[in-house]
Design goal:
Elements: E1 3-4, E2 15-17, H1 30-35, E3 40-43, E4 51-54, H2 58-74, E5 78-83, H3 88-101, E6 106-110, E7 113-116, E8 118-121, H4 130-142, E9 147-151, H5 154-158, E10 167-172, H6 180-183, H7 186-194, E11 200-209, E12 224-229, E13 235-243, E14 246-252, E15 256-261, H8 266-281, H9 286-294, E16 304-308, E17 311-316, H10 321-332, E18 339-343, H11 353-364, E19 367-370, H12 380-388, E20 396-398, H13 402-412, E21 418-422, E22 429-432, E23 435-438, H14 441-450
Parallel strand pairs: 1-2, 2-3, 3-4, 5-9, 5-10, 6-9, 10-11, 11-12, 12-13, 17-21, 18-19, 18-21, 19-20
Antiparallel strand pairs: 6-7, 7-8, 13-14, 14-15, 16-17, 22-23
């Protein structure tokens, strides 16, 4: 693709288009693009030394250009968009795995990168901007994919990164407290996510978690809606239980069917049910669905279990009150002795969730070690002070150095105990100030155990 919105990616003969975002304006980089070899620029204002196309709205122009040039190819892909506070990455990755195991070639676009079976590369954003998305769609198409499953973040919707993408299926997982530093109110957050459900193809369908208190935002009258959950819905979860290292659950969709999966927890029953619904919608036989879902593994940094003697160390991305509650409640069902939790909160992000996470962690754990987690421009000790504010229990300690916190956590394990290392999951860095410093929770744990 010769049209680009990132001046750094411009090569000799490319076209640069100056896009405005909430935080930036591409017009500031037009001269850089020209220096890098742009033969033409598409702008809303300004005069330049190369061929210049002036348009009222560059984003509107780009939408039309992409549709005209590549729309006929993109239309051949089945695009599945997933939104929600928690569960997007796990569910998308599980579906990506399942379709590929069934010989239905599928790509994945989301938090942990761009995958076609194996990882192709990392992505800067969970949901890239429209030009980058089209490049990923075209790469998927060129490599024989018939399906694309993608995470659609609320920020991407608000920033109009996904404007004009039409979905065959739109999925709502849940909506809990997060990103309120950006959206300000939960209603704003819900209304933003709702936009995804206004972009379903005429024959497409919406798949909505009916147990979530905001489900009505996503059941739009113009869509063909499918509901799921423990409450009365099209796909009703009858029961579930954790047995050893598996979760067993039954679904009533007119017929009762039992499933066994190798991923633990009630919240993963929701995630896997979405996969089951989509596989059924795509025409896969029930017996084959039962077989394939048992073979699926969670994505990197999601309920990632490391055995250490007869103890377990679990690394997980949980960083919202709901996600922390879910994983702690899951391990409480595993008949263990003690639960030790290492957790922090990100700097320059929603401060309201900090005391909530502190309370949840101390209430559901034997002991908590509060530590740093991407403090960015904030003092980690101030972040932790927010987390422990008004706690009525004293079953915690503070260790700002995350490496030392993990060492202390491992040393506490005695017999049939669990250590949870939460918040970073797949991330292989700590953001301190403006720097990204190499730091991988899994690597640190394995290094400590070896020693």
């Amino acid at each position: 693709m010769k049209i680009k919105s990132d001046s750094r990616k411009i090569k000799e003969g490319d076209i640069f288009i100056a896009l405005k975002t909430i935080n930036n304006d591409g017009h500031k980089y037009v001269e850089d693009a020209i220096k890098n070899g742009a033969k033409m620029v598409i702008v809303e204002h300004g005069l330049y030394d190369v061929e210049t196309v002036m348009v009222p709205d560059t984003r509107e122009f780009l939408k039309g250009y992409l549709k005209k040039e590549y729309g006929y190819l993109i239309d051949e892909l089945t695009i599945i968009g997933m939104t929600g506070t928690n569960g997007k990455t796990t569910t998308c990755f599980l579906l990506h795995q399942a379709l590929n195991k069934l010989g239905l070639k599928c790509s994945y676009i989301g938090t942990i990168g761009f995958y076609i079976n194996e990882k192709v590369r990392d992505l800067v954003n969970t949901t890239p901007d429209i030009l980058d998305l089209y490049e990923l769609f075209l790469e998927s198409y060129g490599k024989g994919c018939k399906y694309v499953v993608m995470e659609v973040s609320s920020q991407a919707i608000a920033m109009k990164r996904v404007l004009e993408i039409k979905y065959d299926y739109a999925v709502f997982t849940n909506l809990t407290k997060d990103h309120l530093d950006y959206h300000k109110t939960t209603n704003n957050y819900a209304n933003t996510k709702q936009e995804l459900f206004k972009n379903i193809k005429p024959q497409g369908k919406a798949i909505v978690n009916k147990d979530d208190q905001y489900f009505n935002y996503f059941l739009l009258s113009e869509n063909k809606n499918i509901t799921y959950g423990f409450s009365d819905s099209d796909y009703k979860i009858i029961n579930y239980e954790i047995i050893d290292d598996t979760t067993t659950f039954a679904i009533d969709d007119g017929q009762k069917t039992k499933y066994i999966i190798e991923i633990l927890g009630k919240y993963n029953v929701y995630n896997m049910l979405i996969v089951i619904i989509l596989l059924k919608e795509l025409g896969i036989e029930k017996d084959l669905i039962k077989q394939v879902v048992r073979e699926l593994k969670a994505s990197v940094g999601r309920m990632d279990i490391i055995n250490h003697g007869n103890n377990k160390i679990i690394i997980d991305y949980a960083h919202t009150p709901d996600a922390v509650t879910n994983i702690l409640n899951t391990v409480k069902e595993m008949n263990v002795n003690n639960i030790y939790t290492i957790i922090g909160c990100g700097g320059n992000r929603d401060k309201e969730k900090r005391p909530l996470i502190g309370k949840i962690a101390t209430t559901l754990s034997t002991k908590v070690i509060f530590t740093s987690d991407n403090p960015r421009d904030e003092d980690p000790s101030v972040i932790i002070s927010d987390m422990v504010k008004n706690l009525i229990t004293n079953n915690y300690e503070i260790e700002i150095d995350r490496n030392n916190a993990i060492k202390k956590g491992v040393q506490k394990l005695v017999n049939n105990d669990i250590l949870l290392v939460l918040g970073k999951g797949h991330e292989v860095y700590q953001i301190i100030g403006k720097e990204r410093i190499q730091f991988d929770d899994r690597e640190k744990v394995l290094d400590i155990i070896r020693r």
